[in-house]
Amino acid sequence: MSYLKAVLKTFSLLLFFILTNHLASAQKLNADTGKVEFVQDNKIKELLNKHIEINSNAPIKGYRVKIHFGADKNKAREIKGTFSSKFPEIPAYEKYDQPNFNIRVGDFRTKLEAYKFLKEVQVEFPAAFLVQDEIEFPKLEKVK
Hints:
The chain is of the alpha+beta class. Helices cover 44% and strands 28% of the residues. The strands form two sheets. Strands 4-5-3-6 form a four-stranded antiparallel sheet, with helices on one face. It is elongated. The chain folds into two domains: 2-54, no CATH class; 60-135, Alpha-Beta Plaits.
């Protein structure tokens, strides 16, 4: 058993040195400017962009602020419109959970972010409160 461990340890050290040498050779130092330039295969960028494309639509757990719930659909849409005019940069979502129409706003990853916004919103919507929800993933930029 100790022989196998020694072989595995030697093999892993050899692999480590080969990878380290390969990664070090993928960097170029421009002596004139002192900047390091990384050279990488275009397939890495393609894979990264594919990862962004696949995962950008996946919902994640987070928090929203519920500003309204009730059975009147017109009242819910009116409140959503009022919110959107006062906070145009924050997305508002309308969801029907029988028998109520819910208006939830924001896509907050942490409870602290959501709570901060809740305090701001409660001036206009005093009955607002925090709810845990699946939120939209923040928009990612593609690698150029």
